[in-house]
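Catalogue entry: protein

Sequence with per-residue tokens
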Amino acid sequence: MARHPVQVIAVTGGKGGVGKSNVSVNLAIGLAELGRRVVVLDADLGLANIDILLGLSANKTIENVLQGECDLRDIMVKGPGGIRVVPASSGTQKLTQLNSREHAGLIQAFSDIGDDMDVLIIDTAAGISEGVMSFVHAAQEVLMVVTDEPTSITDAYAQIKLLNRDYGLFRFRIVANMVRTPQEGTALFNKLTKVTDRFLEVALQYAGAIPQDDALKRAVQRQKAVLEAYPRSKAAIAFRALAKKVDSWPLPSTPRGHLEFFVDRLVQEAGA
């Protein structure tokens, strides 16, 4: 298991279609540009899409690891900017029904590669299933992606409420995605904060905004990250700014700053 600090970030959001995977991938590349060794775990088990998003070919997936056929090093795919991607299976029903112990076993597999990474980014599925909650609960940082739509705001609030009430999470970092102006991003954050301040004992922190940008759509069509395909686009500039902010987040000096903590949280949950 890694003995040096590993930053574990869960990228999540209550609603599907808010751009979690794009945020995960481009944040990872932005951090890699800053010299960080980054691994992205496609934790949308059953509806995996990061390998497709980046045009990568994955011969083996997490399912092969769970079946004991290989370890994580065998399935990791090298992505743009030097990031590494751990692909999940798409359309495999079994992977959408893992219990807590199986989730813990999956993450335990990361023990062998912990010394080769500085940041682990977990791209979660949408919603508030047990699988999503187990990954988010165990991470050090929760980066919640929200768009300026009533359903996105409502679902983000529901996820925050559940994570706070049932898992004791207190701090949530918010990314306003697909906004037309910086002011719209700030206003979106204020909308969410107004509700959480009234009903919950949580701390929301604004991580920044990603603009609505046709370059991002074109990059997706080309199966490339916008940082790779259009590095000077508005979206790419915003993702680099987000990466710099994330890079400045302090790592705890306690065991919480190590990958062991992430694994232990899942193991404890499995035994609960």
Summary: Residues 27 and 186 are 20 Å apart (CA to CA). The chain has a mean pLDDT of 86. Residues 150-167 form the longest helix (18 residues).
